[in-house]
Amino acid sequence: MRYKGAEIQIWDNILTEYFERYPERVSKTPFMITSLWRGYFSEFEISKNNELHIVSLKRYIGVDKKTSDFFIPESVLDKAFPSTKKCEFFSGFLRIDDAHTGVENAIFIVLEFDQGTLIKEHHLSVTEFQKLYEKERVYNSSYT
Predict the structure, then answer these.
(1) Beta bridge partners of 86
(2) Which residue, among 119, 118, 43, 107, has the nearest Cα to 75 in the 3D structure?
(3) Are residues 103 and 49 in the same domain?
(4) What is the largest CA-CA distance in the chain?
């Protein structure tokens, strides 16, 4: 995800609920790749007007026979998101730092979204983050 000029890794799948709602829009890689267990890969950005947009959604459709080790990507963005690329389906919290809960003075940066619009950037202490995590689903927190 791109935010304020930085590339941020998102480890959780914020598209799960969207594809549960619209299963006909899922286009997965037609073969198994352990590093691509979702069947697709995506990129997001937060625009200058604080909207979360999906900017790329791809799957692999085969192997390049010339090199035999590179997969051939195919965009499925327009099929999955035919009307808008704004992630209006997403409301919740997304953690974007790489702090660890074992570090006493760590600051956690958590973005709060409402229907695809960034409404607040939280800077939380370990205690504040743990309280939020206990009561809300915080995406991208599996590595704390």
Answers:
(1) 53
(2) 43
(3) no
(4) 54
In a domain? residue 75: yes
Radius of gyration of the chain (CA): 17
Q: What is the DSSP secondary structure assignment for residue 50, as one 8-state letter?
A: S
The type of residue at 18 is Y
For residue range 26-61, list pLDDT tens digits in order: 887 667 666 667 778 899 999 999 999 999 999 888
Residues 57 and 8 in one domain: yes
What secondary structure letter does DSSP report for 136?
S
| Statement: the pTM of the whole predicted model exceeds 0.85 | no
Whether residue 100 sits in one domain with residue 31: no
DSSP of 52-88: EEEEEEEEEEEE-TTTSS-EEEEE-HHHHSSS--B-T
